[in-house]
Design a protein that fits this description.
It is a single chain. By secondary structure, the chain is mainly α. Helix content is 74%, strand content 3%. It has a two-stranded antiparallel ribbon. α4 packs across α6. The chain is globular and about 50 Å long. It starts with a helix and ends with a helix.
Length: 230
């Protein structure tokens, strides 16, 4: 797994003191707490919006689908259906639902692959992936746009989760170490990006229709994405 490889890289590059271009672990911990606060804030906002039971159940089902899409191919971590499902959730159901399903998918799948500092960053990365798909849902009818979106998020997901490896670097870390981690994970990120592109090119319209039918059936009082884009 790329996180384990990153830990090995960092173990050979520990720094005894603060140097140019370095960050202290307390700063990273503050950043970690800030990320946790952001995730909590989004969940709290959704709770305070008093969503219908059907919406909560649907989020749980979609999270389960995305989880299965990752777990069944866990032997090939860069190849999974989870990102594709999370993007579709954002496009069809909205940015909040996209964030929630993305964050919950990362949390649930971590019980299969292992919990750690990386879990928080995976929650943030997949959450932002789903939320950004929701923000930009009106542009997904353009094939070039959605392929570029999927390709970009293959790398963005990796770059965000790579930050978690810096917590194993000792009392201080060098910024250059982060770039070393990015380079080490290039193959993983590229595979993830290409997987997103292939799935969005081949399965997007089919899955979108399935998700929209489920939305119309279980959330009839909400406006469909298709209607919003017209």
């Amino acid at each position: 797994m790329i996180i384990e490889e990153s830990i090995q890289i960092l173990s050979m590059n520990k720094s005894g003191g603060l140097a140019n271009g370095s960050l202290s672990i307390p700063i990273l911990i503050f950043g970690l707490l800030l990320i946790i606060g952001i995730i909590y804030f989004v969940f709290k906002m959704y709770e305070q919006s008093k969503p219908p039971v059907e919406s909560i159940v649907l989020i749980a089902v979609l999270t389960a689908i995305a989880t299965v899409g990752r777990v069944v191919l866990m032997s090939f971590p860069a190849v999974n259906l989870a990102s594709f499902i999370i993007i579709l959730v954002g496009v069809v159901y909205g940015k909040e639902e996209g964030f929630l399903v993305g964050a919950l998918t990362a949390l649930v799948t971590s019980f299969f692959g292992g919990l750690g500092e990386w879990t928080i960053f995976q929650m943030l990365a997949w959450g932002l992936m789903g939320a950004s798909a929701g923000f930009l849902s009106s542009k997904f009818d353009s094939i070039p746009f959605r392929l570029i979106f999927g390709f970009a998020w293959g790398f963005l997901y990796g770059w965000i989760t790579d930050i978690s490896a810096l917590f194993f670097s000792g009392s201080t870390i060098q910024i250059s170490q982060y770039f070393a981690i990015m380079i080490a994970g290039l193959t993983y990120d590229l595979t993830h990006a290409v997987t997103n592109v292939v799935l969005l090119a081949i399965l997007y319209n089919w899955f979108k229709k399935i998700f929209e039918r489920a939305k119309d059936k279980y959330l009839p009082n909400t406006t469909s994405t298709a209607a919003n884009t017209e």
